[in-house]
Design a protein that fits this description.
alpha+beta; three-stranded mixed sheet
Length: 180
């Protein structure tokens, strides 16, 4: 019964509010809701613009880092080659040169160069005579008819090189044509 009395009281209150006032109250409610939605939309747009700017800054920084990495990629290799150049220049300054000292200097310079190659992951491809031709690392420049299995290496003309497991230059070889 109380429930019915509450409903009746509510109905009486609504009847006592003039219709014109109800429209004003609902317009005020709509305006406050509209203002609230506009505020939320502005906040969302601001957050979007900030996120977009941050993404653009990140992309720009990444591009700058990549450009810098390309520019200075050979720096380590160049630093390891400088002692080799220094040794060669010193050898040219020596006035009285014996064959033994020349050979010793060249061997030391070659060791420096090999060390620089090793430090920078530059490896030789030096196939052995009698090995099978590996077309991924070797290039046959000619064939000879010889009493040997076909496509086996007869002569190494020039060593090849890889850098960090990537082929830089294939080894140039002569291969057997096979038994005829």
């Amino acid at each position: 019964m109380e429930h019915t009395e509450n409903q009746n009281e509510q109905a009486e209150k609504e009847e006592s509010i003039p219709t014109e006032d109800i429209h004003i109250v609902s317009e005020l409610t709509l305006e406050s809701q509209l203002l609230e939605f506009k505020t939320k939309a502005a906040e969302a747009q601001d957050a979007f613009l900030r996120a977009k700017a941050e993404a653009e800054n990140t992309r720009r920084r990444a591009q700058e880092d990549i450009a810098r990495a390309h520019k200075f990629a050979v720096e380590s290799f160049a630093e390891s080659l400088m002692p080799v150049k220094d040794s060669l220049e010193m050898a040219l300054k020596i006035e009285t040169l014996s064959l033994a000292s020349l050979k010793e200097g060249v061997e030391m310079t070659l060791k420096q160069l090999c060390s620089a190659f090793e430090k920078n992951r530059l490896s030789e491809i030096s196939p052995k005579i009698g090995d099978k031709l590996d077309p991924m690392k070797q290039q046959a420049v000619s064939t000879v008819q010889i009493d040997q299995e076909p496509n086996t290496i007869v002569t190494v003309i020039q060593k090849g090189y890889t850098i960090a497991d990537r082929l830089l230059r294939p080894a140039l070889v002569v291969v057997s044509q096979g038994k005829q």
